[in-house]
Structures are given as structure tokens and as C-alpha cells.
Design goal:
Two copies of one chain form a homodimer. Chain A has helices at 11-30, 37-48, 54-61, 65-77, 99-107, 111-119, 123-140, and strands spanning 81-85, 93-97. Chain A is mostly helical and 143 residues long. The interface between A and B is large, with 66 and 65 residues. The first copy, chain A, binds a DNA duplex (30 and 30 nucleotides) through residues 20, 23-24, 27, 36-39, 53-55, 63-71, 74, 89-93.
DNA sequence: CGTAGTTAAATCGCATACGATTTAATCGCA
DNA sequence: TGCGATTAAATCGTATGCGATTTAACTACG
């Protein structure tokens, strides 16, 4: 049971390869918008709640500032967001959508539906699989 | 339905974050062996069948030579494998486990069991989830 | 009030991923 | 048989991820 298995039989490899396939499926949807998948995730977090700090976005995406700082700087360079130190706590950097960043939300509105269609799942099935995978993730995360 | 959702509600984010959590869970298991997770996958492919070409390993792991070549060179540097051009077809590079590379398999034998335990799943549950996630991956891959 | 301890980002280094291109070897077909 | 098309790796450039460290700002407590 704890023997060596070829990659196709490993649960971990299913997750690994499915995550890659998911990003590949998003690429043609996001490339016209000039976004990578992680950039799209960061913007989604801001579309849900604007004005979050690097740390808050990191908590939402489960990423640290070593990954987010360069990514958010690229979003700033692209003109989607502004980065400003919080006046009340200068340690924190707060991200705010620009007018273009808010407008991008409309242009990206069709993306989730297109992706769902690509999955071949109907919404309840997708939600069920999402919950199963998220539950596994949460069990794997250190307590 | 095709509106903007916060990351935690997206199936894609569940996959994305679960894949990261999976690699994080593997890290303490593989670090003592001096392996990264993708390196462990490549070795697993060779443990299943030694002497594969870069392309064959790439087909198994769904990776291209732009990713694999540097990774396999690091495995060579570490002394786990040798890289040799195929005599019959000089375009191909064939990977062969060294004695140390074969021995490493024993040292890594406990890894899958440790990971399975961390998932909180019993084997049939893990296999079922693996199949569901792999089926999603295969539907997402371009025909 | 001062400073040690903590916290939030940023920085650094290394290892993936992957699109695009290049190089070298083999193949197909007139 | 000869050469254009195809194939397999390698190379190049950019964008993540993440461990480890650094820097700057805030907090707590004597």
C-alpha cells in the first residue's frame, strides 16, 4: 500500500495535472484580457472587495507577499490597480482598483461560464467537486 | 451564473489551492531525500519504467521538454539518473536510473502512505477522488 | 517613554511551468 | 537519392511559488 506507484495512479498527480490543465483552459480566456490566471485570481479578490491589503489578498488566495508583491506590481504596471501604503498603519499596502480595473470585471464576466462549459459539468456537480477538493485542501493544510 | 465570484467559491481555485497544499504536504516528506515534488514525479515515472526518453516522461507527467530538460539535468547532477542520447535515434535522450537512483526508491517507499494519511482519506476514497479529478483534467485537455 | 519583540511587505535565490524559437536528426516522397 | 517537412530536445524569456532573510513600522510592557 505504501509502495511506489506510477504517476497516473497517484491522487497527488491527478491534482497536479488537473491544476495545470485548468490553467491551460483559462489561458485562451484570459490572454485577450492580458491576464495570467493568478493575476485573474487577485483581481477577483478585489472585485469581491476592493481596498484589501496584500495580507488580506494573500489570505484569500493562500499566497504570501513573496509571490504577491511582484504579481501586484505587474497589475499596477498594467493599470488595473493602485498600491498605496495605509495611512493608519504604514506597514500595510492597500490595493485599490482603478477605473480600468473595475471596467475589466465586465469584460471578464463571461470567463467563469466559459470555463464551466469546458469542464463538462453542470453547476451542482462543479460545486460538489469544488467542495470535495477544498475539503481535501483544508485537511492537508497544517493546523 | 457567469458573474464574478470570489476565489473561495470557484472550482478552479479549489484545484489551484489544493495542488499547492498537496505540494506543501509532500515537502517535509521529500526534503530529507533532497527532492522537489516534480523531481519525485519524474523519478516515479522511471521507477515504473526505467530507460524512458524525455518525451515519454513528458507524456506521463504532461510536461514538455522546456520544463523537463532543466529538471532532469538537476536529477543528473544529484546523481539519481544518467542522460544519454539514444544510439538508434540521436534526437532522443534516454534517462536511466543510477544505482543510487534505484536505491532511492526504497527510501521513498513510505512517502505515498504518509501522504495518504495526511489526506484523511482511506484508499478507496482517495482512488475515487483521483478518478474524478483525473476525469475533469482529461475533459479540460484539448482534444 | 524606550526599547525589545512582533508584524507586514519587500527582497533574494532557486525551481518550476510554458509560449516561442532554435538546433539537430530523421522521415517521406517525388 | 535528395531535400523539404517533421520530430525531439534544448534554449530563451517571463511569470509564478516559496523558503529564508531583511527592512520598516507598530505594540507592549517595564
Amino acid at each position: 500500500m505504501s509502495d511506489t506507484l506510477p504517476p497516473p495512479q497517484m491522487l497527488c498527480f491527478a491534482l497536479y495535472s488537473a491544476a495545470h490543465a485548468m490553467q491551460a483552459a483559462y489561458r485562451p480566456l484570459l490572454e485577450p484580457l492580458g491576464l495570467t490566471y493568478p493575476q485573474y485570481l487577485a483581481l477577483s479578490a478585489l472585485w469581491a472587495e476592493d481596498g484589501q491589503t496584500v495580507g488580506q489578498i494573500g489570505a484569500a488566495l493562500m499566497l504570501d507577499s513573496n509571490t504577491l508583491t511582484p504579481l501586484l506590481k505587474r497589475l499596477e504596471q498594467a493599470g488595473w490597480v493602485t498600491r498605496r501604503r495605509d495611512a493608519a498603519d504604514e506597514r500595510q499596502v492597500r490595493l485599490t482598483l482603478t477605473e480600468a480595473g473595475r471596467a475589466l470585471r465586465e469584460k471578464a464576466a463571461a470567463v467563469p461560464g466559459c470555463f464551466l462549459e469546458r469542464t463538462g459539468l453542470v453547476l451542482p456537480e462543479a460545486a460538489a467537486l469544488r467542495d470535495e477538493v477544498a475539503a481535501l485542501r483544508d485537511r492537508l493544510r497544517p493546523r
